[in-house]
UniProtKB/TrEMBL annotation:
Full protein name: Antimicrobial peptide ABC transporter ATP-binding and permease protein
TM ranges: 262-285, 648-673, 702-724, 744-762
GO-annotated cellular components: membrane protein complex; plasma membrane
Lineage of origin: Bacteria, Bacillati, Bacillota, Bacilli, Lactobacillales
Pfam family, one: FtsX
Signal peptide: none
SUPFAM superfamilies noted in UniProt: P-loop containing nucleoside triphosphate hydrolases
Domain spans labelled ABC transporter: 2-240
Basic and acidic residues biased stretches: 332-346
Amino acid sequence: MLELRDIKKHYKVGNTVTKALDGVSVAFRQQEFVAILGESGSGKTTLLNVIGGLDQYDSGDMVINGKSTKDFKDKDWDAYRNNSIGFIFQSYNLIGHQGIIDNVELGMTLSGVSKKERRKKAEEALERVGLKEHIHKKPSQLSGGQMQRVAIARALANDPDILLCDEPTGALDSETSTQIMNLIQEVAQDKLVVMVTHNADLAHEYADRTINFADGRVTDDSNPHVEGKKKEPFDLKHTKMTFLTALRLSFNNIRTKKGRTFLTAFASSIGIISIAIVLSLSSGFQKQIDQTQSETLAQFPITISRETTDQDPENFEDQRSNEGTFPDNDEVTAKTSDEDRSQRTNDIDQDFIDYVDDINPALSNNIGYTRLANMNLLREIDGDPELVQFSNGSEDESQAESMMSMMAAQTGVGVSSFPKQLDDSQGNFLEDNYQLLDGSFPEDTNDVVLVVDENNETNINALNNLGFDLEDGDNVSFDDIVGTTVTLAYNDAFYEELPTGNFIPNQDLDEVYDNDDNEEITISGVIRNKESSTMDLLAPGIAYSDALAQKVIDHNQDSDIVQAQEDSDTNVMTSEDIDDTAKDNLLDALGASEIPYSVMIYPNNFDDKEQILDYLDDYNEGKDNEDKIIYSDLAGTMTELTGGIMDAITYVLVAFAGISLVTSMIMIGIITYTSVLERTKEIGVLKALGARKKDITRVFDAETAILGVASGTLGVFIAYLATFPINAVLLNLTDLENVAQLDPMHALTLVIVSTVLTMIGGHIPARMAAKKDAAIALRAE
Ligand code: ADP
Ligand code: MG
């Protein structure tokens, strides 16, 4: 069934080619016990390795069941070893970190036998060699004779056709040797057993046939066989190890060296730890920055106001170069101050308002307007209508105070009309940023709300101006406020024309109050800024929609008093002479103009703000200086402070952390390489059992995968723990809470990155391991 024809095998020692086999020709029968007898170094092991397909011959031909192995591919040899060959070595070659039963099962695992059948066959094999009661032990707990029995059980378990024994009793005492030889003889009843030995007594006592071997040649054969020319079907079942088996093998191996594995995982996790910390810090800082940015922008929006200051430094260039000439003369030069020089008027028109309305809502969805138009409001108190107002000013508001509220309007602090949404589908400003304490959010143009601060306090004037009679510190229940109605009278009802042509507010408030054109305005709810909101725009007090202000203007635009005022150069109420500015202001107050006094744009963050500024700059492109619209960007100076620096720092830190990651990858490579060296024998055994190159690679890939997952998880876990002390220190230093936050997505990514990188780092040594010559691997000590 097996025939060797003129097999030669050459080895290289240094540059010299030596011969281990020198044209061996021999044929074996299906069932016989052949002993090959020869001196040490005569080439016996080499011959067995060639028969077993562990070491490929250089010339000659091997024929199995009439089929030449000349065209055998790697996978055919692997399958041949797995299906047809059982090896028994002088030094047992059991895998130390695996249990006895696992060692016996290994060959079947490779040929894909089911777990249940594997276990059954392995138990049978162990019972056959008399080790039934030792099944649950490890190889290291057995004597030499017992280990050799395990090796025999392993060789038999897969039911091979040929059993190859390389000095099976070489390491055993004579009594144990006898037991083992009896066992092998028993096996030889129904198999071809080829045993090599240098013990002539043993050979003659047990074998059916003895072949003398010297210097790689057959010198004498006690019972030569001539293989016929029969051609039998010879099918091989190809082997395959699953990744799970590889994992189990590696996991058991790793378990035997817990300390080292932990240290390795820890050392290689340092890269992961540093990256995780850098990421959690930078995303935490980024959150803080984003929040500060939008808070800043809520307080300092881009403002376009009718009266403005030109902050463009270009316009002061000549002023600056003039500095400090210390002239030696006796004259004083009269000069316009910087402030006065930079005062200018923006000619805001409908064009510009439309342009603002076209701002990309993704950059800023909120646009606030300040309008100077008065609302004529009345409320019935104790049965009689009285004049009231939506204002936080004290009743006897002085000139200075109205200037103050004008200033407030310019900077956007404490606006009373809430911003208009450019895109309603992107949310509702009030509902997104404010919490409803009582009543409902405005549903109608005529609904207004009362805004309170985080202590539920609101401006006393706001309430008193509406006719409440309160002292500082008095409390009013929500119920008394929600549902309060105020009557809005339009100019034609509110003002009456005197026969002189002058206008005065109608003194008969009952008449004004009962006019059919009046509107009813309701305080629909009480709201408070959400804790999480950064858009704290509305000052405590009454807030209404810009739509309401526009509605008032729409109606009052064509009122008699407005038309009269437009045609007159004197104040139509007082008959005073007025200049153009005073007339404009008066007209605005009467609601003559649809154009707001100022526009406030609230971008989401500084980047978006830059884009909006560019957009606004485009409006001025090609316009005369007087026609340009100058905006003030009060948050502008803060831009340089944050933004870019944070990114730069993150990049540098991630780069450093990346270096430690590469270092740990190299380390994993070295560790795997060491492991490969350590497990060389195991590789040999696996190959002898029919493992493919792929399977060997798998075993080591599995090991690095375990290491990678372990070090990634450990790193992420340590980094997570580290965020607590880091946050404590940062809180002490900066008053910022919970800056370092490990994003779960980052954590997961890092574990994956760690696994992938360590697998890459370990894959090259794994490939080297797989390529190892099996015959040489088995010779390794
Ligand atoms: P035996 O098993 O009969 O003691 P071996 O088959 O192990 O002999 O070796 C036969 C000869 O081939 C020895 O001289 C040995 O040094 C040599 N040899 C075996 N394997 C190699 C190898 N991989 N490289 C070089 N020489 C080898
Ligand atoms: Mg040998």
